[in-house]
Amino acid sequence: MKKSLLLSVVLLACSTFFADAEEGMYPISEIGRLNLKAKGLEIDPSDIYDPNKISLIDGICRVNGCTGSFVSPNGLIITNHHCAYRAIQSASSPDKDYLKDGFQAKTQTAEIPAKGYTVRITESYRDVSKDVLSVVKPTMSSADRTKAISKRRKELEQAAEAKNPGKRAEVAEMFTGKTYVLFLYTYIRDVRLVFAPPSSVGNFGGDVDNWEWPRHTGDFSLMRAYVAPDGSTATYAKENVPYKPKRHIKVSSRGVDEEDFVFLLGYPGRTSRHKTAAFLEYEKNVRLPYIVDLYQWQIREMEATGANNRAVALKHSSRSRSLANVEKRSRGQLKGLARKQLVEARMAQEAKLQKFIESDSDRKQKYGSLLDDIAGVYAEMAQAAPYENDVANLVNACRSLNFAFTIYDAAVERQRPDIDRESRYMDRNIDQTVRRMMLAQRDLHVPTDKRMLHGMLKRLANHKEEIKNVAFLKQLNSDAFAVDQVIDRLFNNSKMHDEDAVKKFLQMTPKQLAASDDAMIKIVVQLYPEYKRLREKNKEREGKLGQLYGSLIEVKAEFMRTDFVPDANATLRMTFGRVRRYSPEDGVIKTPITTLKGVIDKTTGKEPFVTPQKILDMYAKKDFGKFTHPKTGQVPVAILYSTDTTGGNSGSPILNAKGELVGVNFDRAFEATINDFAWNKDYSRSIGVDIRYVLWITGKVYGANHLLKEMGVE
Predict the structure, then answer these.
(1) Are 624 and 696 in contact (CB under 8 A)?
(2) Catalytic residue among 650, 652, 684, 686
(3) What is the pLDDT of residue 312?
(4) What is the DSSP letter of 652?
(5) So what's the pLDDT on residue 7?
(6) Residue 418 near residue 323, CB atoms below 8 Å
(7) For the chain, how far is it from start to end, CA to CA, in angstroms?
């Protein structure tokens, strides 16, 4: 199917925005408008993206929630170690501890399944805003508006998949409540682990160095995509063959130097730069502090139960690392919101906008209360958040309750027409939902889960008014409620720890589940009406904000007379910048390239600063091969650059001016955690692993020269 350009409604037409900005996670349809040659790009922009020919974007893929690059004609993918972490952890055991020791497949037959992983490749996209919004009626309630838009998006996805067998379609919201784009994807479901360095390399510095610069982490892994012999997508099978990408990215062992032009292609997650000051206040005062507190507690519980048992620690490792990453990012965002006074700055911008609105009677009538109306929704959310957040996380923190909820929720949703179901339970998505749940189920550790449930019930007991009419939770108001005894009884009379039992429950109807004697399911049946109520409330808020933010984009465009880049939303984007130092605080200048010497200097022999003996020995002999930086005489490890990135850009290729891969993006500097809310050329910096360190570790240290050869590096 030929790729089609996004309609101009995605970016409101005007040329002034692109004058000299490095900010922006640009939709790939806009690459031709960015004057990249003047910025330092040496190839033609059409070599990055051209709807009528194969280009660099055909070598980019999404790997679960991260980005990856095809680096060989045989489906070899490079991404981050932390992106492959779940696959490494799932394949590990105390006897075969691939997290600790690393993994290398010397042949393709030795590559192991990356359970639960999919690879997504963008094939085409087109604007469907008019079609989506055609179902919205002025008389609709906010909740009905949300449901109508959601249903229309699903209908368009199903129709596109019917016309393109074997492909996946997704309608993405570009501007909230305003513009929608239908993307068509190839989904590959047989993904295998090829090479992963030990965690002492891939996660060197651990949480201490996470979101920090300077950084000395070899955060990379290699995976491979497989398809059926006829080229169609298929689940794992021995007879499957490596996927042949339309394009693979050339790997350059020359690397980069300070002030070199670089650009990234990838799938950044979600940003909120078009949201109001009221939203930022909600983040600052409500959501982010809650996440920090909740995640710190969960991490402590997992550390306590896994402290003296490697098997338990392995079960917790993926979940714990994910929580730690979000927790530290949230702390960075809180710090950035305060230090950079983003709320105050956005308030000042909105004061000017309000003055503009009120300067014209027609505008005032249409938009006069717009900002106050948006603020009203966030005020309502803030008031309800303490209770609603705790209820939501009751079935998130406690995995057994989460499994029971998913089982019952899926059964209820299956009674409805497919198009009306929650998206994760539609026929096209249910297999993936179940696979993810079963992977989590295999990592269930009941003693830890008991502690999680105890902690969440303790939190909910503080909401005496809110829970007094909620089945099961209202018991928390009773002095006679013996929480430890109740928890023991729940776990003793539940089979959520039994994989076969969970699979049987997944085949049952709501009536059959309600009649079962599983204690966790019985609790979920009691709680379910409250979760349905809160789901409807969230749809109502989503509908209100969608409509209001659509109006905000209209009036801001009129006021600013400029283009807007839509917030990131996990669709393919491009960003560019330079390898560049920065000054995070007065008197401090941080240069943009770290080296192997820094790894050795940081090494203490104690977690998280442990370095494999092989690396220590090679450093002592100065056995660097051809992977040294000409100025330092050292193997470069990590690089810092001024591109605009966020979550989802993990694994994005760092490409030089010729479009060659020179590194793999994996993080941001601590000051740049607020990129989700605002970007600044002075402090927004991204972090990647230098390709020379990748190649040195893979080929020189661990002897996987066959992989370097496959990547075209001799």
Answers:
(1) yes
(2) 650
(3) 97
(4) P
(5) 35
(6) no
(7) 37
Rounded to an integer, what distance in angstroms lies between the CA atom of residue 571 and that of residue 62?
9
Amino acid letter at 111?
Answer: E
Measure Cα distances from 254 to 139, 440, 691 in Å.
Answer: 61, 41, 8
* For range 312-324, the mean pLDDT: 96
Annotated catalytic residue: which of 97, 219, 390, 518? 219
CA dihedral over 378, 379, 381, 387, signed as positive or negative:
positive
Count of Cβ atoms closer than 10 Å to residue 308 Cβ: 8
C-alpha 670/C-alpha 328 separation (Å) is: 9
Count of all residues that appear for the chain in the document? 714
Beginning with the edge strand found earlier in the chain, give each strand of the sheet holding 686-690 in spatial order. Answer: 26-27, 573-578, 261-266, 653-655, 661-668, 686-690, 636-641, 593-595
3-state secondary structure 458-477: HHHCCCHHHHCCCCCHHHHH
Q: How many CA atoms lie within 13 A of 684 on its CB side?
A: 22
Tokens of 365: 């009538």
* Other beta carbons within 10 Å of 712: 14
Show the tokens assigned to 487.
């928890």
Note if the pTM is more than 0.90.
Answer: yes
- Residues 251 and 83: their CA atoms lie apart, in Å, by 20
Give the pLDDT score at 19. Answer: 33
**What is the rounded CA–CA span in Å between residue 401 and residue 513?**
14
- Burial (CB count within 10 angstroms: exposed 0-12, middle 13-18, buried 19+), residue 480: exposed
Q: Report whether 702 contacts 102 (CB < 8 A).
A: yes
Q: Band of the pLDDT at 23, cuts 50, 70, 90? A: confident
Secondary-structure breakdown of the chain: helix, strand, coil percentages, each rounded to the nearest 5: 50, 15, 35
Residue 683: Cβ-neighbour burial (10 angstroms; 0-12, 13-18, 19+) = buried
Q: 3-class DSSP state for residue 121?
A: strand
d(CA 522, CA 495): 12
Helix runs in 92-238, H state only: 98-101, 129-133, 142-163, 199-202, 206-209
Q: How would you classify the pairing of strands 636-641 and 653-655?
A: unpaired
Q: Give CA–CA dist 713/694, Å, rounded.
A: 12
| Overall average pLDDT of the 266-273 stretch | 96
Q: Please report which confidence band the pLDDT of residue 22 belongs to, taking 50, 70 and 90 as the band edges.
A: low
Distance, CA of 397 to chain centre: 19
d(CA 545, CA 553): 12
The pLDDT value recorded for residue 574 is 97
Residue 697 · residue 353 · CB < 8 Å: no
| The Cα angle at residue 419 between residues 416 and 421, in degrees rounded to 5 | 50
Tell me the DSSP string of 591-653.
-SEEEHHHHHHH--SSTTS---HHHHHHHHTT--TT---TTTSS-EEEEEE-----TT-TTPE
Count CB atoms within 10 A of the CB of residue 485: 9
CA dihedral defined by 303, 600, 686, 271, rounded to 10 degrees?
Answer: 0
27 cis-preceded (ω within 30 degrees of 0) = no
Sequence letter at residue 577: G
- Interatomic CA distance for residues 7 and 127, integer angstroms: 6
| Neighbouring residues of 468: CB distance < 8 A, sequence distance ≥ 6 | 474, 477
Domains and CATH numbers, the chain: 16-118+189-272+565-710 (2.40.10.120), 277-559 (no CATH)
Res. 665: pLDDT tops 70 = yes
Q: Is 488 a catalytic residue?
A: no
- Collapsing DSSP states into helix, strand and coil, what is residue 217? coil
Residue 699 CA to residue 693 CA, distance in Å, equals 10
Q: Which residue in 29, 55, 69, 82 is the catalytic one?
A: 82
Q: How is 473-496 classified by DSSP, letter by letter?
A: GGGGG-TT--HHHHHHHHHHT--T
